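Lab notebook page, bench 4
Experiment: in silico fold of construct C2
Operator: M.H.
Input chain length: 195 residues
Purpose: comparison with the prior construct
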Amino acid sequence: MKQIRWTTLGFSGAIALVVGIIFVFFPQDLFSTAVKGLGILLTAFGSFMLVVTYNNHRKNKILNFYYLLQAIVNLSLGLTMLFRTEQMVEFLMFVIGVWALATGIYQIVFAIKVRKIVNSGMFLLGNGIAFAGLGAIMVIDPMEVIKTLMLVIGSVINLLGFILLYFSFIVYRFNKQQRKMADATPGIDEVEIIG
């Protein structure tokens, strides 16, 4: 008897729930881990660039200077991300907040200037206000923005996990019902549904 695979849906739903719970209950730890991972990559790349610089020190001097500069920047950022993770997270969020604030203010000014020319000026104005507001919040309290963002992402992942588990239960019941029908009426060949 051929049946629908419900275990894949159930397993995916369980994994989604675990990931969602991590996002909801450990947002700062998750973000710090991601920053440390990026720090490891930047440190490794910076070290690699130092080796390239050393191996090519007699060749193109301008290109070698660029490699050395890139190695120093990558090593500095990578080591800072590894050993000053919290400060680096706050700094990155602050920089993104300043960028969002500046972009929002620009959009507001632009929307006011072109309001008579462009039909969607109000949309641009609303977008600019939202952008500037988000940027201001990120500048004032960057860690709270991270926690809120991770909470929203985690909640969505949890919802998707519950949906997957629900559908795996439906498919499981369908398979059980299909087995009962096959046992009651021998000779009927079921259609295979793989999902």
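Observations: Residues 43 and 75 are 5 Å apart (CA to CA). The chain has a mean pLDDT of 81.
Next step: discuss at group meeting.
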